[in-house]
């Protein structure tokens, strides 16, 4: 809890009293973050992050994505099963261009990895990178120096090799978008955003926790 409080204090401009309604537009009108309706074969929640052509940095900044990830993790830890089994992230870089790369920055890389590695109470089991083009190397060069060994061992790079992804998450538990047997994703954050509103009081309570200000 101390590390979480320290992270929030250090980045208070982003997270102070943050509520789902603060990023309603990003959640509902831009299909950047999505969560599969069902868990995987190990009962883990699966989140999709669209880092390629779907993401328009002029409409949703990288800092907003970080705020959205923070809010989603607060939603996830309300589920007892997710507290136990953790979550998996699929980073989809389909159509990545310089437009998205320019929207990233070393400071964002540091904040994101600091959150994942030091301040996220949710158990992150695996991170899968898929459909990444050659330009992805520029992104990875930014992030790689800050990735600790524990997280590095949980990162897997698949490109367009969906069978490689299926070695970790069976096709039976993935949508057709990723070579799976489940129906293609036909929903977005607009469909599950109302669920976030049902736990607003919990998030308000969470916002009161932290270091005692002297």
UniProtKB/TrEMBL annotation:
Transmembrane segments: none annotated. One of its GO terms (molecular function) is phosphatidylinositol bisphosphate binding. Residues 23-186 form the CRAL-TRIO domain. InterPro entries: CRAL-TRIO_dom, CRAL-TRIO_dom_sf. Pfam families: CRAL_TRIO. One of its GO terms (cellular component) is membrane. This is Alpha-tocopherol transfer protein. CDD domains: SEC14. SMART domains: SEC14.
């Amino acid at each position: 809890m101390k590390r979480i409080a320290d992270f929030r204090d250090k980045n208070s401009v982003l997270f102070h009293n943050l509520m789902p309604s603060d990023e309603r537009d990003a959640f509902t009108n831009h299909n950047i973050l999505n969560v599969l309706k069902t868990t995987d074969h190990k009962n883990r929640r699966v989140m999709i992050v669209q880092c390629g052509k779907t993401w328009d940095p002029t409409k949703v900044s990288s800092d907003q994505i970080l705020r959205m990830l923070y809010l989603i993790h607060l939603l996830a830890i309300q589920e007892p099963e997710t507290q136990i089994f953790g979550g998996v992230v699929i980073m989809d870089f389909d159509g990545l261009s310089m437009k998205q790369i320019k929207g990233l920055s070393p400071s964002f890389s540091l904040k994101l990895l600091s959150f994942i590695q030091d301040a996220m109470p949710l158990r992150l089991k695996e991170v899968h990178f898929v459909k990444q083009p050659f330009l992805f190397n520029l992104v990875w060069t930014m992030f790689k120096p800050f990735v600790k060994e524990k997280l590095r061992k949980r990162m897997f790079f698949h490109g367009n090799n969906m069978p490689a992804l299926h070695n970790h998450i069976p096709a039976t538990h993935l949508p057709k978008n990723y070579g799976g047997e489940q129906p293609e994703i036909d929903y977005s954050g607009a469909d599950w955003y109302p669920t976030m509103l049902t736990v607003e009081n919990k998030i308000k309570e969470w916002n009161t926790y932290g270091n005692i200000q002297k």
